[in-house]
Structure formats: C-alpha cells, structure tokens
Design brief:
DNA polymerase, domain 1, 3 domains, alpha+beta, 409 residues, three-stranded antiparallel beta sheet, hpI Integrase, Chain A
C-alpha cells in the first residue's frame, strides 16, 4: 500500500529546516522537497504536521498546504494506475506537480538568482560570516557575467557555461586557480541545495568535468624553534603586538581556527588540563590537551583572553610580530593567476597569517609522530588524504623523520 509521510531535513536544527515528502510505493521510495521550512521546535513528529500553538499562529494555513501536497501525491499515484502507467520517481514527480496548484509548486517561477538571493539571507542564521562573504562574492561575479554575456538560470549551468565561466574568472578578473575553484565549489553548493529543494532538475553540474580546480598553495608553517622565538620576544612596549602574539600562539598550540581560538573563555577550560570547544565552522566538539605555553598565556590573562582584533587586522599586525622574532628566511612562491604562473621571493614573515597557526599545529604534531588519527580528531579532517595535503613538511624534514624508521636502521 502506498503511504505518504513528511520528515524534516535537519530535525535537530535550531533554525528553520526543509520539510520533505516521502512516498513509499511498490517497494520504491520517492522523496520530494515541499519547499516549506519550519523550526523543529514547532514540528509534531507523530502527526507529521506543525503543532497547534499560539507561538506559530499560521499553523492552520501551513498544515493545509501539507494536506494539499499529501492529497496531491495520492491523487497523482491513483491516476497513473488508472491510466495504466507504471509509476517511477520521475513520472510521479511530474504527476504530483501537475496536481498541485501554483501556490504550492514554485519551481517553475523561482529563478537561479532569486534562489541564491533568498538562500544567502537564510544562511545568515546558521552560516559563518566568512561563508556568507564567499556566497556574496560568488553571486556578484555570476550577476556580472550574466549582465555582460548571457542570462544564467538552473538549466543553463552546463559544461559549456563552466568552460566559459572559468575563462571569465581567470582572464577578466585575474583570479588565482584556488580562488576560481572556491567560486566553482560555491556554485555547485547552490545547485545542490536547489536540487534538494526540488527547484532544479539539471544535474550537469555533477559531471566529473564540472570540477573544482585547485593547486597546492605555497603556504608555510612555523616549527617549534620558531614558535619559541616568537614566545621569547619582549613586546611590553607594544600591548597591541603582545596581544596579537599571545592569541596567535594559542592557535599554534591548539590547532583551532581564528574564529575559535579568539573566543576561548574560562568555561572552555576543563580541570586546567583540556580545552573543550564546539567549532563555529563545523559544529564539531573537540577536546585539546593544554600545552604548557597555552597554560602560561591563559594564566597571564586569568583564563579570560583579551578581545581580538579583526582577522584582517590580526594578519597585518602578525607580520610585524614574526618579523621582530627574526623569522625572515626567503621563500619562493608560485601561484597561477589569470592562467599564468607568477613567481615571487618573499621573507617568511610576510607569508604568515592567523591560519598559519592551525597549519603549524598539525605539521608539528605530525613531525613529532603523534598518530595522524589523533591529530585529525582535533583538526576535523575527515580523511587522511585531506589531512596530508594540509600539513607542510619539506623534503628534508620528511627525510629526517624517516631516518628514525626501523627500515633505515
């Protein structure tokens, strides 16, 4: 017997989440985005409807729309059988949308740009400021391309568009390969989300040739000796740089991102042994043993770290700190911008940013032969492959590490 039910996309979410229709028929499962969203606290899982509550006064109209969808799928299924048509998910989706009126199904009305605009607003409730900034920049480039060349909608996001858009970003905006890759990844995220919501049926963005390009960046890390140099410099004459140095070292010995290591509070410190935080970017809870340097810095501020400058300002001041520590080794960097390889030779301190702290933590623990899986528990990397791409170990450092291996002894 065919049966319809409604489920939440993210039942444990603290903000609005999508409602899906799930229809089980003839040993098949059809899943359809209703386009409706609800905060889980207002959802009655047993009744599969919005709770009857004054806190959500529009519940009668909301539940009426869900009733209409449920009646629509039942009618669509029955009509297909009566017409002698064997249902499958594609046929059933079209039949359902034919049943529903225009007030329910908006997939033919919502354009790609309208969707992106509303999705960015929606994301402000549960995404980081950095992610929202990336979304807005990607949207800006898409609108510019559409105005200059051709309109973009769900059905036009094809391999042809992909190839032309790569050229637009690389040659007209002189963006690096990694920045271009970031924008392609964001477009794929938009398309994925729209597809899940039933607004898009064009899946060409999933083609393996519609790929997120990236090249290994010439990022640096700071080894233990360099971190000690930074820790030793006397910055009492410049409270600004002293604060930046201290916060940066917290990052170097915890592996936390800037958004997390600058928010450590006394509540995060457990028994003066471990720091426990829920990371802002991924929502993961991590526990990190307190390094002696971290203990010293926390004691200096009575476990309440000073308020940080913005990430941009921190990066600016940090270069002064690293320079004062005498870390000025010349590093050759290469980057592909506008389709051309650019080479530069820069002193190491100019390549340091707040994210260097996290990379230094991972690399130093790896060189100290801490098990990779233990480091990944803190950094949040899902695979060993992605972790090994993240750390920075030179050929010489790798050889030195192997010298202690039984194979070479």
């Amino acid at each position: 017997m065919a049966k319809a039910k409604f489920i939440l996309k993210e039942p444990n979410s603290k903000s609005d989440t999508l409602i899906y229709l799930v229809y089980n028929y003839q040993y098949k499962r059809f899943k359809y985005s209703t386009g409706e969203t609800i905060n889980p606290k207002f959802w009655n899982k047993t009744a599969q409807r919005v709770k009857t509550t004054k806190q959500f006064p529009e519940y009668p109209e909301f539940n009426s729309r869900l009733d209409k969808i449920e009646n629509g799928i039942n009618n669509a299924f029955r009509k297909l059988l009566n017409d002698g048509t064997q249902p499958n998910n594609t046929i059933l989706k079209q039949a359902l949308e034919d049943e529903l009126d225009d007030n329910i199904v908006k997939s033919n009305r919502v354009t790609f740009f309208e969707f992106i605009d509303s999705y960015i607003e929606e994301s402000k409730l549960n995404k980081t400021a950095g992610t929202i900034k990336v979304y807005k920049t990607t949207f800006k480039y898409l609108k510019e391309y559409a105005k200059k060349y051709k309109p973009i909608n769900f059905e036009t996001v094809t391999l042809e568009f992909y190839n032309q858009y790569l050229g637009f970003l690389k040659h007209e905006h002189n963006l690096s390969n990694n920045t271009v890759g970031k924008h392609i990844k964001t477009i794929k995220s938009f398309m994925n989300e729209a597809t899940e919501r039933g607004l898009n049926t064009n899946l060409e963005f999933k083609n393996k040739r519609f790929k997120t390009i990236r090249e290994e960046a010439d990022t640096v890390y700071l080894n233990i000796e360099e971190l000690k140099q930074i820790e030793k410099i006397d910055l009492k004459a410049s409270p600004r740089l002293e604060k930046v140095r201290d916060l940066f070292l917290i990052g170097c010995y915890t592996g936390l991102r800037f958004s997390d290591f600058t928010q450590i509070s006394p509540e995060n410190i457990i028994d003066d042994k471990v720091i426990e935080v829920r990371t802002q970017k991924t929502g993961q809870r991590v526990a990190i043993p307190l390094h002696k340097t971290v203990r010293t810095i926390l004691k200096k501020y009575n476990n309440k770290l000073p308020k940080s400058y913005s990430n941009q300002k921190m990066n600016e001041y940090l270069k002064d700190v690293i320079s004062l520590a005498g870390i000025k080794e010349l590093i050759e960097t290469t980057i592909t911008k506008g389709g051309k390889i650019e080479k530069n030779i820069l002193p190491k301190y100019k390549l340091v940013s707040t994210h260097t702290a996290r990379r230094s933590f991972a690399t130093n623990l790896y060189l100290a032969e801490v098990p990779t899986i233990a480091i990944m528990k803190i950094t949040g990397h899902k695979t060993e492959r992605s972790f090994l791409q993240y750390i920075r170990v030179s050929q010489k450092e790798n050889a030195d590490k192997l010298l202690t291996h039984p194979f070479f002894n």
